[in-house]
Amino acid sequence: MGVSFSSPIHDPSERRVTLRYDEIGNRLKAYRLGSNLSADEIANQLGISRTALYRFEKGELAKIETLERLAELLGVSIPTLLGVGIEYIPSAVSYFERMRQIEETSDQIIVLSGPISLLLSSDNFMLTLEEVLTENVTKNVANRERALSDIPKLMEILRARKDAYRRRRPAIVNLMSAMEIERFLHHGLVGRSGLPEEVLEQRRALAREELDHFAQLLENPPIGVQIGIVTDTLPHTGFQIFRQPDRKILVLSPFRLGGEPNIRVGVAMITSAPDALSFHEASIDEMWGRALKGQNAANLVRQLLASKRVPNDNEDFSNPGKAPKRGSRNKRPSLM
């Protein structure tokens, strides 16, 4: 069944920020998974038992001195721990665990992140991803053993995210870049440079299969899925906006999966600050308005698969049976 191309952004009335002890517990769990510390070690630093730690992670109230110790452990202030401010995440494992937690209660997810969206990716993509992430941890990487040991934990989290998405089916809006797609086709699904040519050919074939999967999603989108492809510049830093029943959340991240992944370097940020959300929502609306969608976007992807060429921004992709012509693109759809 087709989906109308409505605007991905809505404007519900703003709600007062409230303290969320479940979120504090989620942050503690994400930190534990990404820190390489045991539950006993973290419990000792907080001055509580292991049993109390798990209750804390589930959202139970904690004493003020425990909150103070947790803020010190996370390197943040008490107000930031309580949700007033920006949450900074320097670990990919912690970051993707936080994404899993946030997605569990989100009704709509807006994604601007690389050529491939994990939640919409194919099963074959997931089968190859662990190998790609492993080869990304090259021999000269600092703390290589820990980086390698993080990958199974990361894959478990990513599989849980996919399973949750398929179970809950929140609405998802995915903005992709034609230039990122072209780069993905050229390099393939690789974790590093210098791979043998026969491996590169296999990975390029996998990239083509994945983009064919997205072309099919564009032609026959599942209910609640909207995909747009922008033929000019998109921001280099990916971000996501999550809409939940009582709030909106903005996430900015340097971490990325798929071709040329990054799971080691950078700091992600999470905030519900109204100003930050407003600016990013306006940016999404602007990019969504000029993006190709539906069959036009599918035609673009299939042309890239055929030619591996980045299209001109003035080309017309409305007729799949003819070569693209110069002139005005398809009219901007009305955004409801």
TrEMBL record:
Pfam families: HTH_31 (PF13560). Residues 323-336 have a biased composition (Basic residues). Residues 28-81 form the HTH cro/C1-type domain. SUPFAM superfamilies: lambda repressor-like DNA-binding domains. Gene3D superfamilies: lambda repressor-like DNA-binding domains. InterPro entries: Cro/C1-type_HTH (IPR001387), Lambda_DNA-bd_dom_sf (IPR010982). GO terms for molecular function: DNA binding. It comes from the Bacteria. SMART domains: HTH_XRE (SM00530). Transmembrane segments: none annotated. Residues 311-336 are annotated as: Disordered. This is XRE family transcriptional regulator. It comes from Undibacter mobilis.
